[in-house]
Design a protein that fits this description.
Blueprint (H helix, E strand, L loop, with lengths): L1 H21 L19 H4 L43 E3 L18 E3 L13 E5 L5 E3 L1 H4 L5 E8 L16 H5 L2 E10 H8 L7 E6 L6 E5 H4 L4 E6 L2 E2 L9 E3 L12 E7 L14 E2 L5 E2 L8 E6 L14 E9 L5 E7 L7 E2 L1 E3 L8 E8 L6 E9 L8 H8 L12 E4 L5 E4 L4
Parallel strand pairs: 3-12
Antiparallel strand pairs: 1-2, 3-4, 5-6, 6-9, 7-8, 7-12, 9-10, 9-11, 13-14, 15-16, 16-20, 17-18, 17-21, 19-20, 21-22, 22-23
């Protein structure tokens, strides 16, 4: 027993001596701890518990699960956005925890109008009819025989940020901008199927209809169908989850999420739109003159700061620390070309750096390295541009056209106040 204790003490002494000798040679990482100071840190001076016992066998959790320490990284809901029973409701993505431009399937935002349907893939059928030369009914296996393609795109609910036309309602990035997510999708272009079936020349519109109990139906212009509309069955390398429309959903890259009908059962082609409930009483934009805009689909150029955020503040930073400000930018019109960042609420801007892959109709991650000054108040505002020539508008510019009674397609610039204590608040800058 005494021998074991003396051996442990000797090892601890040797570690402390090592840190003393190497401290002068070490380089301090951003926000890290010096080697000399580490000799008082039990986590570095002693063997960690998980390194002194067997880990789980590979036969445990054959479908992997996140670490138990990531319990806060979840989709969230609120009664304010629910029908009362959470079936016609939404669970929003924790974009403040996001990495890169791919959202894990378990965190991808979920919106339904009658609850999540659970479809038997063996009983699944897709009907394609109307103004096509060869109407057809496809099983899932038959659908998958068409040549597949894989693309990375975001899906955004057109109500993303829609609670804030008059001013911020949630002091939370997740609830302010989490009505969106981005994934790698696998499926088939609808135009590929139409090459086989033949589309009649008078066909101008396509109705997409879901098989859940809400029977979501939306009219889609044929121009979009023949461009990049997809029927997808794969998401991030696996089958769609039930809440994402398993086994098949429609994907219209860059266009509002409500059009990306889940649990897809029918595509019908006609010469006129259907004026379904979700494109008449819902998903229209009310203007100040009392008239509503219909048939506007693409999610406009947009961006937001994701770090810092109310969920991840700067309260632990010290004066002089170098910290990375990160954000997301996206456009349903094309590809992000530039993101500007302001520290004073939009009076002055600096150019941010685009990180990683920059893809059309996909999230683009951006960042800016900043030296933190303790006690300084910042108003972090981002503004993005795309290759179609669109620039994200200010709140004043957007409200001057749309007023404040709308719900959908709000893409005015967002501002996040960093207080003198490093806390973060959602604010709105108006002239």
């Amino acid at each position: 027993m005494d021998n074991k204790k003396s051996k442990k003490d000797l090892e601890l002494s040797q570690r402390r001596e090592f840190f003393k000798k190497t401290a002068a040679l070490g380089v301090t990482a951003l926000g890290g701890t010096t080697l000399l100071a580490s000799q008082d840190d039990p986590a570095i001076m002693h063997h960690v518990p998980w390194g002194q016992k067997w880990g789980d066998p590979v036969t445990k959790n054959l479908y992997g699960i996140p670490s138990a320490y990531e319990h806060n990284n979840i989709r969230r809901t609120t009664k304010l956005l629910a029908s009362g029973n959470y079936r016609a409701s939404i669970a929003v993505t924790p974009i403040h925890e996001s990495e890169g431009i791919i959202t894990p399937n378990g965190l991808f935002f979920s919106r339904s109008h009658g609850g999540t349907a659970h479809v038997d893939p063996n009983e699944y059928r897709l009907m394609i009819h109307g103004l096509v030369k060869k109407p057809i009914v496809l099983t899932l296996k038959q659908l998958k025989r068409y040549p597949s393609i894989t693309r990375t795109h975001f899906i955004e609910c057109p109500a993303n940020g829609g609670q804030e036309w008059r001013g911020p309602q949630f002091n939370s990035l997740q609830f302010a901008k989490g009505f969106m997510a981005s994934a790698e999708w696998t499926g088939v272009y609808i135009k590929t199927i139409l090459e086989d079936l033949g589309l009649k020349p008078e066909a101008r519109w396509m109705l997409a209809e879901g098989s859940d109990n809400s029977e979501m139906g939306r009219s889609v212009p044929v121009e979009k169908v023949l461009d990049d509309a997809m029927i997808v069955w794969g998401q991030n390398g696996e089958a769609l989850r039930p809440e994402q429309g398993y086994p098949v959903r429609l994907l219209l890259p860059g266009w509002e999420g409500n059009l990306c009908v889940k649990w897809l059962k029918r595509l019908e082609f006609a010469s006129e739109p259907w004026y379904a409930k979700e494109e008449t009483s819902k998903y229209t934009a009310l203007k100040p003159d009392g008239k509503a805009i219909q048939h506007f689909y693409a999610n406009e150029v947009n961006s937001t700061v994701v770090s810092p955020s109310p969920e991840i503040p700067w309260t632990d930073l010290k004066d002089g620390d170098v910290v990375e400000i990160e954000g997301l930018a996206w456009s349903g019109m094309g590809t992000i070309t530039n993101v500007d960042l302001s520290f004073d609420g939009g009076k002055n801007y600096v150019k941010a750096n685009l990180k990683g892959l920059v893809l059309p109709k996909s999230w683009t991650r951006w960042s800016y390295m900043h030296r933190y000054k303790k006690g300084e108040v910042l108003l972090l505002t981002s503004r993005s541009m795309d290759d179609a020539g669109y620039i994200q508008p200010s709140i004043d510019e957007e409200v001057s056209v749309m007023g404040v009674e709308s719900v959908y397609h709000r893409n005015g610039i967002e501002t996040w106040e960093v207080t003198a204590k490093g806390e973060v608040n959602h604010v709105q800058i108006r002239s």
